């Protein structure tokens, strides 16, 4: 009888956790217009809460990676899922802006940030030798798949039953996923006497890490800051975040409504991007093992920039042009993740891939946070999103330039970051 390696069970649980987290974050997108209607808040005010969410979602990354190293994947995932469930459930009673910022900005940002792409990168590195790029791509696509599953039905629920019902549903989903994590998640294959999937050499039992996780995260940043390629990758990934989770995730629905689409149809556009991204990012993981990841990133950012520059015209040209935008942007959405992880893995030791990628992902979310608020402020000042879309397109072309500045293939062994001093 063929036995399934437990790495695939861990991968499935991780995918579900990332999926649930993505569903909660996607729900915030369909709440923008209802909150404006219910409470009289303007676009910039609502965008502020989502901007705080994106910022903390990213800043959690390096510290979450360090916490996973110190306390294990399972404990961090459980704490994050319970935080998400409580925060979203309580938010159905909110009445003031500060409550929106505290619950959806701070708590949901922290909870979802603890299970961001850093979790996927850590699981893929610990549990897989073969198929690592493919698994990384699947994890990266889980955010878009969350949109695919949650956005259309959440938008429909908001219209028919109100935003509070939609929020309660995702709170329950977080609890269900937490139960699955408690039952089936494992921290490391060595804890079970296994090798990573595709590993050929027996590994010693995992050593306990006792250093301060926050010191580990800060020490990682200090040492990474000395490496030029780290800044180039972090800068390009910041633009990636600005043009996806900051601009399109937050503002595509209200922009589409202003151009005559209803909210459910606009949510369906984001969901369709999720479907295409599941394909694009999975294929990107496969390509990353076969093509220079620098070349892939240059193509990805260039195509994304062209799509954003085309978007204002697409709204004027009608459905066929918008469909072309959805396909092109969807295929490209987070296809940047597998080659970025590969480039970091080539330059740094695998022992710290979680905290290192955590800081790069923090840059991604900082870009997203800035773009989420800036686009809302620009809309409030000018009355439309034209300047925001065109600026984002030009930034993507800048990201391609940053990638061209990376070193070629790294002939020397990866830079090994020294361990943080015990605290």
Record keyword descriptors for this entry.
423 residues, mainly alpha, Growth Hormone, Chain: A, 17 helices, 77% helix
Identify the quaternary structure here: single chain
Number of helices: 17
Please tell me the CATH architecture by its name: Up-down Bundle
Structural class: mainly alpha
What does this structure look like?
- The protein has helices spanning 6-29, 32-39, 43-71, 73-90, 97-113, 117-127, 132-161, 163-184, 213-224, 228-246, 248-258, 263-288, 293-317, 319-332, 337-347, 353-382, 386-404.
- It is mainly alpha-helical and 423 residues long.
- It has one domain: Growth Hormone, Chain: A, CATH 1.20.1250.
SSE topology sketch:
Elements: H1 6-29, H2 32-39, H3 43-71, H4 73-90, H5 97-113, H6 117-127, H7 132-161, H8 163-184, H9 213-224, H10 228-246, H11 248-258, H12 263-288, H13 293-317, H14 319-332, H15 337-347, H16 353-382, H17 386-404
Short synopsis of the structure:
The protein has 423 residues and is mainly alpha-helical.
């Amino acid at each position: 009888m063929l036995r399934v390696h437990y790495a695939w069970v861990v991968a499935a649980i991780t995918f579900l956790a990332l999926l649930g987290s993505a569903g909660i974050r996607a729900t915030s997108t369909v709440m923008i217009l209802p909150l404006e209607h219910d409470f009289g808040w303007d676009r910039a005010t609502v965008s502020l809460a989502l901007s705080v969410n994106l910022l903390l979602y990213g800043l959690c990354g390096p510290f979450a990676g360090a916490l996973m190293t110190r306390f294990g994947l399972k404990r961090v995932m459980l704490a994050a899922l319970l935080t998400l469930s409580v925060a979203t459930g309580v938010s159905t009673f909110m009445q003031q802006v500060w409550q929106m910022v505290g619950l959806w900005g701070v708590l949901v940002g922290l909870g979802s940030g603890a299970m961001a792409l850093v979790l996927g990168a850590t699981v893929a590195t610990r549990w897989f030798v073969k198929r690592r790029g493919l698994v990384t791509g699947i994890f990266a696509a889980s955010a878009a798949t969350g949109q695919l599953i949650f956005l259309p039905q959440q938008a429909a629920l908001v219209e028919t039953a109100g935003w509070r019902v939609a929020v309660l549903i995702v709170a329950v989903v977080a609890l269900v996923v937490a139960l699955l994590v408690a039952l089936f998640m494992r921290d490391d294959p060595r804890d079970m006497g296994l090798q990573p999937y595709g590993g050929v050499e027996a590994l010693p039992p995992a050593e306990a890490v006792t250093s301060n996780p926050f010191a580990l995260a800060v020490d990682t940043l200090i040492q990474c800051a000395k490496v030029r390629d780290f800044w180039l990758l972090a800068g390009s990934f910041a633009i990636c975040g600005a043009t996806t989770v900051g601009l399109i995730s937050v503002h595509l629905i209200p922009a589409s409504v202003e151009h005559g689409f209803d909210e459910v149809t606009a949510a369906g556009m984001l969901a369709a991007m999720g479907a295409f991204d599941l394909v694009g990012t999975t294929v990107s993981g496969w390509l990353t093992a076969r093509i220079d990841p620098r070349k892939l990133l240059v193509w990805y950012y260039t195509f994304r920039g062209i799509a954003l520059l085309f978007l204002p015209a697409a709204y004027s040209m009608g459905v066929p042009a918008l469909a072309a935008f959805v396909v092109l942007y969807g295929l490209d959405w987070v296809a940047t993740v597998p080659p970025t992880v590969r480039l970091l893995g080539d330059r740094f030791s695998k022992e710290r891939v979680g905290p290192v990628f955590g800081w790069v992902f923090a840059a991604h979310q900082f870009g997203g946070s800035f773009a989420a608020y800036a686009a809302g402020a620009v809309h409030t000042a000018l009355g439309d999103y034209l300047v925001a879309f065109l600026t984002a397109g030009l930034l993507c072309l800048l990201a391609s330039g940053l990638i061209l500045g990376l070193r070629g293939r790294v002939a020397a062994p990866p830079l090994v970051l020294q361990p943080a001093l015990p605290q």
